[in-house]
Amino acid sequence: MSTAVGTTDTGVETGWTVDFWLDPACPLTRHTARWITQIAGQVPLDVRWRVMSLSVLNEHREDDPEDDPDGFLWIPARVAAAIQTEHGHDALGAFYDALWTDSDGTEREWIGDIGEALRRTGLPAELAKAGTSADYEAELRASHHDGVDRIDAEIGTPVLAIVTPEGARRAFFGPVLNAVPAVTDQFRLWNAIALLTDVPAFRELKG
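^ thats the sequence. predicted structure below, dont judge the formating
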């Protein structure tokens, strides 16, 4: 079984990579993002932030599972796509963090002002205009499908594509969390995911 840390033949410690697709306005995804960030601060784990969109995911449906008749969810997703395209995955992660925290670092229950998050992240203010335009629509859809299309199932956000220290690759929908796990549970959850990553036949688990 893969563990949280691996070693090469020369004894050099190696780590994990997680590509993390998120809709920036999903509160449950924020719990997962905070959890994976805390894990990454304690084990060799490189997180690459990528944008997906619940608006893109659900646009073919007759119902509206997100109850978003005015299309609000398109705005932060488009801005996130612009940031990812022009400034990279680390910049997206920093913006996402600022979007969900107050200036003193206190976690928010809902996203804050996009312009303020850009300012605090040191990103150009004009990126906010992407939220109400189609300038980065193609990039948003491409990033979305790069994550979602890895899983042959009905899914949502987040999507995690994991590369183990041994080079095995696996993509999952979730974990979807109601809250950030307690410290004692954070590694239990990570180790459970590490175990599932090593089981080729595993496909889906719902609670």
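Residues 28 and 176 are 6 Å apart (CA to CA).
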